[in-house]
Structure formats: C-alpha cells, structure tokens
What we know:
Elements: E1 8-15, E2 20-22, E3 27-29, H1 35-42, H2 48-57, E4 58-61, E5 65-69, E6 75-78, H3 80-90, H4 97-100, E7 102-103, E8 111-112, E9 118-126, H5 128-133, H6 141-163, E10 166-172, E11 177-186, E12 188-194, H7 197-200, H8 204-207, E13 219-225, E14 228-229, E15 248-253, H9 264-293, H10 297-324, H11 327-345, H12 362-376, H13 384-391, E16 435-439, E17 444-448, E18 450-451, H14 458-461, E19 478-479
Antiparallel strand pairs: 1-2, 1-3, 1-15, 4-5, 4-9, 5-6, 6-13, 7-12, 8-12, 9-11, 10-11, 12-13, 13-14, 16-17, 18-19
Amino acid sequence: xxxxxxxxxxxxxxxxxALALHADEGMWLFTNPPRQQLKEKYGFEVTxxxxxxxxxxxxxxxxxxxxxxxxxxxxxxxNHHVASDAxxxxxxxxxxxxxxxxxxxxxxxxxxxxxxxxxxLMSIEDVTDRVNAAVKPGxxxxxxxxxxxxxxxxxxxxxxxxxxxxxxxxxxYQGGQYHLYRYKRYDDVRLVFAPEQAIAFFGGDPDNFEFPxxxxxxxxFRVYENGKPAKVDHYLSWSKxxxxxxxxxxxxxxxxxxxxxxxxxxxxxxxDVDMPNRLxxxxxxxxxxxxxxxxxxxxxxxxxDDLFSMQNSRKARLGMLAGLQDPxxxxxxxxxxxxxxxxxxxxxxxxxxxxxPGTRSPSRSRTTRTSTRxxxxxSSAASALASTASSSPSPSGSSAWPRRAASPTPSGxxxxxxxxxxxxxxxxxxxxxxxxxxxxxxxxxxxxxxSSSSGRTMKWCRRSWPASRPAPVPPNWSPAPSSAT
Length: 485
C-alpha cells in the first residue's frame, strides 16, 4: 500500500535548564497552523511570509525522509539514517562509506547518488470539492472509490502539465479533505558528508529511540541544476549560539501520519492483531538478514542498511504496542469516544447521519482480522536482498525461515482468485493438499491454501470471505484442512 507523505508543522518548547523536553500536543498543516494558540500562549504571530520560508526551507528526501536547506548553494542537512540508502548505493567493496564515512573537501569530489530525489513543497491547493464531485448518487463504495481515484489522477496529470511540478493529491482526515501538493523535484543529488556509522549510530539498537542519546546522526547532500549547485531563496541559517532556555522551537518535516482519530475498536484491533503480526514479520526478516550478514564481510556490508531498517522498525513498533497496551491510554480514548457519542445523541435527528460513530459489523471485523493475518504472513521478503537471504540456506544447512512457492499458474486455473473467475468452466490440474506453517518466537500458526499440482498457493492465502458465505473454490481444486499447532 502506498502511503504518500504529508507535510506537517510540529511545535515543541525546549527547556534546557531542566534537561527535559516539553512539547505541545499536536501536528499542524502549513495551511492550518494554530495561530491563536501561538499568539496567546507564546506571543508569537504566525505570518504567511514566515510559513512560506519554513515550508520552502524544508525538504522531502526520497520516499519521505525529512531534511532542511542550510545554504543558498543547495546544501541539505538530514539524518545519517535517512541518507544511509544513498550512502550504501555509492559504496563498493573497496570503498565502504558506511563503515569509513565520507567527506568531499571540494565540490568536484561530491558523489552523485543514483536514484536519489529531493523534493521541495512549493504550493498547496484544496481540491476536496473537485474530488468529491466525481462521486455520483447511487454509487456503491467500490465505484465511489474508483471515481475519486480517477479524479485524483486527472488532477495530478493536469497540474503536472500546467506547472511542470511534481504533483500529488494527498488524502487528509480519512477522506475529509484532499490537498494538491506541488513539489519542485531535484534528481541530481550528491553526497557531501557522512560520518562513520559507528558514531552515527553510537549506542546501537539499545540507545535507539531513547533520550538522551549521544551520536552524530547527520549527513549532508547538495542538489544540482544543469550541472551546477542549485541556488535556493529559502534556507535555514546556522546559529552559533544554539537554542536558549525556554525558546520556542518549531520542527517541520514529513512524518507519515497521525492516527489519533482512530476509534477505540480500531485501536484494539491494531493492539491485538495488526501490530503483533507486523512485529512477527519484522522479527523474521531481521533473523533472515542477520543470518545472511554473518556469512561474510561482504554480505554484512550489503545487508547493513536493510538490517538497520528492520531493527529500527521493530523497536519503533514495540514502543507503539506498549502505548496501546497502557490501560491509562486506552481509558482516555474510551472516555473521549464516550463523550463524542453523547454529543452526537444530542444533535437533532434531522441533522445527524444514520451511522453511529465507532460502530462496526462483527462479521466484517472477523473478516478483517483473517485478511490481515493472512496478508501479513504472505511473504518474508522485505526487499530484493531480504528475498535473497530468505531463499539461501542458513549456516547450519537448515532453513530458519519460510520458503515461498514461485510456480506459474497451471493451465486453466484463475490467475487472480475472485468470485467471477472461479465460476469458469475450465478445469485445473490434478489437486494436491498444501499447508504453510509460519513460526514466531511464541507460537506456530498453520493454515491451508487452495492449491493445485503446480504449487499455486499464495494467491489464495490472501483472500478472506465472511463466515456467512463460503470462499469460492476453483473447479477440481481442494482445500488442505487448516489447523492450529
């Protein structure tokens, strides 16, 4: 699933004397900052000129990392872990810049980074009405979504042709608003400086996501236009004095999303099903990459960035799960949702929707849980490298992770399982039973997939059907009985 980054303005107040970090609650869009709160509480007035400066001084690196322009000559400052993919790609067996670091003493020594892009958000336009207008009365959910997506594609293509800027329509508030983001994209990005990973990730996994933390998690890029350093009008100036006690501090960047508006039922589902399953997959990938890394120095160099990504994700999600398992956190969410429900009941019937906030269908919930579990465990590969690690034998000669069948679809079998395709009069090859077992540190989960003699199994593992209606079965296909161990 593709999740497009949104640009938020986050506010925090730093109290250095007490060696504590206090942050006001919330994230804000550049188009909707808390002006009144900032003026009343801190005496700071947000102006359009200031917002534009901060917005255009910020950079989106790659798929969503954050950075900032820090010079008029296109110098960009970011985290080492954000730049690590680019550092890894320009490294070789002879020149390991992840291990040894890199410093371009002159501009002609700066290394061009393949596939690296840096975006600057130039404008934001509300296109909510245009997207919603594509949905006509009487459309079901699938048709409505298709219509919205068609409108989004049209808006993006039209904007690209009109402005020449990379254009993305982002969904906000779960479809409450749609904004068109136009980015200036730099595709000539060069590495200027990166410290050794030993200091960039000092303290390793135990210190990751901890405070205070002592390391040099920094790297510098430079963006070029027409073979020369890009000239930018907006950048953040260096301060020799640093932050003072009690000084108001703003942080701008590209976090993925916030989920504070989720219902209690949704949070319970994430806590009990989604997050544990994701953690099991991450742990399996981490084990596969660690085993691959241990076989040689070159394997370790190749796998380092992917392994760090798995370790980073694992620790982040453990923290998320711990928060969801905190009774005090869930009690606050339940109280807030109860207050919302009571407020809705006080709205006159003519003004409120027939839907009740936070309700869900029990059969739909069961289907979602099954679908999430099956989809989550459908592959152990996080990347091409993880796939290689997963398909290689472990040092002991036995497989420490599941294997995935990669057989072609048998003649006459549906390539994509669907209710319509399974009604075909064609027949498949002779049947055979097949089960897949996935083991985690705490349990083994076993279920069966619809299979044929050619081993076509994984497609059917991804399907989920309500209990009231049995899953459609292709002609001459047999299910292997599912059992838990």
